[in-house]
Amino acid sequence: MADIYDTIIIGGGVAALGAALYSGRFEMKTLLIGENIGGTIVNTNEVANYPGFEMISGIDLVDKLQKHAQQYNIEIINAKVEKVEKNKQNFNVLTKDKEFNSRTIILATGTGWRKLNISGEKEYTGKGVHYCALCDGAFYKNKVVAVIGGSDSAARDALLLAEYAKKVYIIYRKKEIRAEPITKTKVKKNEKIEIINNTNVVEIKGDKFVNKIILDKEYSGSKEFSLDAVFIDIGHIPISDLAKDLRINLNEKNEIMVDRNGFTNVEGIFAAGDVIDTDFKQAITGVAEGVTSAYNAYNYIQKQ
């Protein structure tokens, strides 16, 4: 059998990279396996709340974290983990092509886009239905687009889209968008952006591409609403299937339950980042959780 790793970190976002950096510093034999190196933050145009950087793009932040982590003796593989199995004392981690063995596991699998699950959403994904304004907003120069959602992320997406589109609507099911005060002020000052509150999108229609949506109540005298694209930003769902298969405790949101040191209920398995049961999910907290998990994985191995 191949050499046993001290820890295998599953995930590619900032929490995973923070864990890798510190496990490298602790001179642990470390492997990071991530399907998407960088995670969801690479879709963020402006990160203004990461200490030490007044403003940085998500891609640049990930690049700095990865370069820092790779100053230490760690391995990074771009692959999807299909399964994790517990053997007598260690863990087998299986990708499509290879199998690895490790003394500890750090799950930093993050989250995926939450879907509306309405008619037309799946059919028009990539054809006018999008989940990443940074990735696809530039395709809609001088077009009419809508952002579905009311979070700070949705509001920031609207501001980004306003740099390209001639008109941006924010459609939100509640009375008031939940953006941070500074973001909300920018939205309200932007003449291209209009907010439609207390309204749901119930269907997406088109021919080859999206050309209209159907609302659950009339707007300007009609439930039909013509536009060129829909950007859905209604939050994320935890990617915790590996944890479920390992009988790790999950909460009602399917987030991995951990204590303040990153321990799960399964000995030798730690978790960090957006996949765990914390209310406040930020890049800086995810990195800190990854670092904490690496530190406690190190201590766990020392005690064995």
Record keyword descriptors for this entry.
2 domains; 7-stranded mixed β-sheet; FAD/NAD(P)-binding domain; 304 residues; 17 strands; 28% strand; 24% helix; alpha/beta; single chain
Q: Please tell me how large the radius of gyration is.
A: 21 Å
What proportion strand?
25-35%
CATH topology label of the largest domain: FAD/NAD(P)-binding domain
> How many extended strands?
17
State mean pLDDT (0 to 100 scale). 95
Q: Sketch the topology as an H/E string, one letter per element.
A: EHEHEEEEEEHEHEHEEEEEEHEH
Using the coordinates above, name the CATH class of the largest domain. Answer: Alpha Beta
Helix content: 10-25%
Low-confidence stretches: none
The first-to-last residue Cα distance is: 21 Å
- Globular, elongated, flat, extended or rod-shaped: what is the shape? elongated
Explain the overall architecture.
This protein has helices at residues 14-25, 58-69, 133-136, 152-161, 181-189, 241-245, 283-303; strands at residues 5-10, 30-34, 74-78, 81-86, 91-95, 99-107, 111-113, 129-130, 144-148, 167-171, 193-196, 201-206, 210-219, 222-226, 229-232, 236-238, 269-271. It is α/β, with parallel strands linked by helices. The protein folds into two domains: 5-112 and 236-303, FAD/NAD(P)-binding domain (3-Layer(bba) Sandwich); 129-232, FAD/NAD(P)-binding domain, CATH 3.50.50. The strands form four sheets. Strands 1, 2, 3, 4, 5, 6 and 17 form a seven-stranded mixed β-sheet that branches. Helix 1 (14-25) runs parallel beside helix 2 (58-69) and helix 1 packs parallel to helix 7.
